[in-house]
Amino acid sequence: MEQTSTVRHEASPHSVVAPAAGENWLDTYFGVSRRGSSLRTEILAGIATFLASMYIIVVNPAIISAAGIPFSAALSATVLISFMSSLAMGLYARNPILVAPGMGMNALFTYTLVLGAGLSWEVALGCVFWSGVLFALLAVFNVRKAIIEAIPATLRYAITCGIGLFITFIGFKNAGFIVASEATLVSLGSLDPTLITFFVGMMATAIMVILRFNGALILGIAFTTLLAAPMGRLWGEEVLVEWSGLAAWPDFSAVMQVDIWGALKVAYLPFIFVMLFTNFFDALSCFMALSESADLKDKDGNPRNLKRSMTVDAFASMIAAPLGTSAAQTFIESGAGVAQGGRTGLVAVVIAVLFLPFLFLSPLLSLVPGIATAPALVLVGLFMLAPVSKIDWTRYDQAFPAFLAIILMPLTYSITLGIAFGFLSFVLIKAFTGRIDEIKPAMWVSAALSVVMLVTTH
């Protein structure tokens, strides 16, 4: 009887069948036993992933509130989109993957579109929406192969690394560790209680990460917040941590404030494209990495349910904008749950449920000061630098565009400028060194959009 049931599941992985003897409906729907897991393992895996990634509940509002979105509204949007998209990933794509507002996408939204290019946050949300629409079209029509082949792997790795350095720079800046200087452009901040508190919190967070504590980043945020609590009371001049209550009704003031039609301007197309490009490749890279590490593959050796997973990711980006936050994307922190043995969509469902209570805890979470989230930003930058080892630095025709993309993001304080010069330099080098046949049509389009962005915004 068990053998027959197994064959039926494999033949139709998305169908719902009657439970076999000894199975419950969760086991049957998600195929828990068939994947070599158990309900207990799946639940524990969901908790592990949530602990590894719940820092986003505080860090994402901290970043996008700098664009003008109220912190409490940004927090509500973060929790809602994390709940809805992770639930969809679990129930529809049936993969153990978290989807939430992405690091890098929130930095692009705040520091490039709003603070850099001067867009209102409503129009910037419109750009997020349209990038989600294009992402959905790519996912539905399954054209990922053509796009993957067009953009060189070295540039994809470089963009991830550059965004990581940019996020780290933001973390140091938010903590006052790096400040502006007329003589040297940037310099170390004053050695005051704030800087010392940040440094101690950063080192404590790094040590917890190295020791592989579950939820190391959120523990680091909590620890640094406690360190900052006496500021302005026992030492220092400014009070950084103030109690405003434990719970409150969610703030939905940013919901449906997106300016969809205002974002449809030629000058904004490069921003939409950069969001699409970053989100698409982050999602694809995450799915491929997780499928390799946990053997989450189909019979052809491809990531399991890839089209459905990419579709969920795309629609999550579309929904994020009307809710009032930057684009949602797959989280590589999902690997924490996979490492615990999670293999099915039940993991994502557990993650989604764990996010929901934080919808009502915005007063408690608003206690967290900027210097407490800054260590998490620095460590996220470290994690995002991993692909740098995959770049062949001896091939200068590949390495130079990658180098420009990496170094210009933090130095120009702009993700789009790093990507633009990376694409432009790649096309120019290939064209003038007799390798024009290595330039795919999508790269010509990317270079043209880069020129449009540079001309219209600078």
From TrEMBL:
One Pfam family of this chain: Xan_ur_permease
**Subcellular location(s) of the protein:** Endomembrane system
Give the membrane topology: Multi-pass membrane protein
**InterPro entries linked:** Azg-like (IPR045018), NCS2 (IPR006043)
Say where the protein is mainly found.
Answer: membrane
Does the UniProt entry include the keyword DNA-binding? no
Source taxon at top rank: Bacteria
Q: Does Glycoprotein appear among the keywords?
A: no
Keywords of the record, alphabetical order, are: Membrane, Transmembrane, Transmembrane helix, Transport
- The membrane-spanning stretches of this chain are 43-63, 69-91, 98-117, 123-143, 155-173, 193-211, 216-236, 266-290, 311-332, 344-361, 368-388, 400-429
Q: Which family does it belong to?
A: Belongs to the nucleobase:cation symporter-2 (NCS2) (TC 2.A.40) family. Azg-like subfamily.
Q: What is the recorded name of this protein?
A: Permease
